């Protein structure tokens, strides 16, 4: 067939597999042809003969020759991804969907609210923002995990601070080693001086965290169009054809995965 | 462009077409018509109403291996208005960039006016007509002595220039209109005393709770309604042994909406049942410009839970909110 196959994959080599937590691994990948993605766009990760699963690259879009995905073991395909070793060949389809509208963030106070493995796409965004820090008035990361052991990218927070990010972290269940905040991620707003009128907020995490995170942001004075959500649905084709990821009238894969809360707030059950 | 073809010339013409194209036609079957490939010998008429299966399965298969291959030149004869309107939505979904290369878009579409209707047909209740309006290469209106043929594309026009077609006579247009009016009358009669508030349907679908719960209570999630619907397009992309495989999927199945980790926004039947109405009358019209239901009534015939889709639509009115 001389026409390009709609669902063809780029053959990709696994370079490295990093253990983040007992359930989460970061897989470093080298595609045969560079994957030129915008931060926030996603890919379909194909384990040949097994299945596909969607992930947003967690690495900086400025690095062209390789990229990372951070994967939580949650089902059949992700279980198979966790068994990959350096040198294995997998497939990648993408980049798919729309990325974060970075120009909307220029000159603004950018607040990133992440929970658990939801930090994966946010790391890519954070690295992009920090690479052109002068374009934003402030970059804040508020991150929550269940326990100190569940925090991903443990060694990298100090580096991001050096690059100009303000970072606050919380864990739901602290232990004796934990010196930072204990409680759900929204407790990080207590006593925090922010300027919603001059800002945008970006949220990614488990649905329950996204819901209460958004409610908190609205209470703090953010307007619905200032809140950007990374929505997770059952994306299969990734091209707005198979129907699985319907979020009201939208297809998350094509119209998202990043949505302004203002555009989807009327849709029933968005947090389910 | 309009031309006329006599029944005798029609037979000669399709024999000629068969040399170049694979010809699909509505072949008489038990309780209706079924899509079949014309081998050159069977009787071939365009009278009747929509076949048992929607025409969509001639444009993609319910289960297909996504392997490279050229599209065989083909023509589908006898596509009815309802199937053709639904196909417009499917084309929008499959052919909008990036185009799905497996959708058989080169297949020529020869529509045909309905000359009768099935007991479950209700296109007129949706404000549609029992004949094709757009999206065909040629459309055939059955007449006493042949067919009045109208072109709807450049390719159709080229075909009409062939030697089998003659100029239309003055009385042809009148005969066609009369026949169309007759079928519409039959449809109106079988749907008499039924009113569909199309204008407020979207609003009612959003607000309604009781009707979906009541009618949805006998649904057994078999997915017959979505499989047989000419406007349902959902599929699941899976990994086969050597290449990707596409299976038709259904929003009425519990696993359809489930995400990794097990969360499922549509675990309960009522929400899945409602989802189908929202998709067809609210979301698709708003995003793709075509409604997903065209009143063919196949889902009513196929439903194992005896749910009458048409009655659900009729019941969606303010009194039940």
Structural features, described:
The complex is a heterodimer of chains A (272) and B (321). Chain A has 272 residues and is of the alpha/beta class. Chain A has 6 helices and 15 strands. Chain A has helices at residues 76-82, 119-131, 157-162, 207-220, 252-255, 261-264, and strands at 10-21, 24-31, 42-47, 51-55, 67-72, 89-96, 109-115, 138-145, 166-171, 181-182, 199-204, 227-230, 246-247, 250-251, 258-260. The longest helix of chain A is centred in the last third of the chain and has 14 residues, at 207-220. Chain A is globular, with a radius of gyration of 18 Å. Chain B has 321 residues and is of the alpha/beta class. Chain B is globular and about 65 Å long. The mean pLDDT of chain B is 93. Chain A binds chain B through residues 1, 3-7, 46-53, 72, 74-75, 77-78, 207, 232-234, 236-237, 239-244, 246, 248-250, 269, 272, and chain B through 66, 68-70, 93-94, 96, 98-102, 233-241, 244, 249, 251, 256-265, 271, 275, 278-279, 282-283, 286-287.
Topology readout:
The complex is a heterodimer of chains A (272) and B (321).
Chain A: E1 10-21, E2 24-31, E3 42-47, E4 51-55, E5 67-72, H1 76-82, E6 89-96, E7 109-115, H2 119-131, E8 138-145, H3 157-162, E9 166-171, E10 181-182, E11 199-204, H4 207-220, E12 227-230, E13 246-247, E14 250-251, H5 252-255, E15 258-260, H6 261-264
Parallel strand pairs in A: 7-8, 7-11, 8-9, 9-10, 11-12
Antiparallel strand pairs in A: 1-2, 1-6, 2-5, 3-4, 3-6, 12-15, 13-14
Chain B: E1 2-6, H1 7-18, E2 22-29, E3 32-37, E4 63-65, E5 74-79, H2 81-95, E6 108-112, E7 138-142, E8 146-151, H3 154-160, H4 170-190, H5 201-207, H6 210-216, H7 224-227, E9 235-239, E10 244-248, H8 269-288, H9 298-302, H10 309-315
Helix pairs in contact in B: 5-8
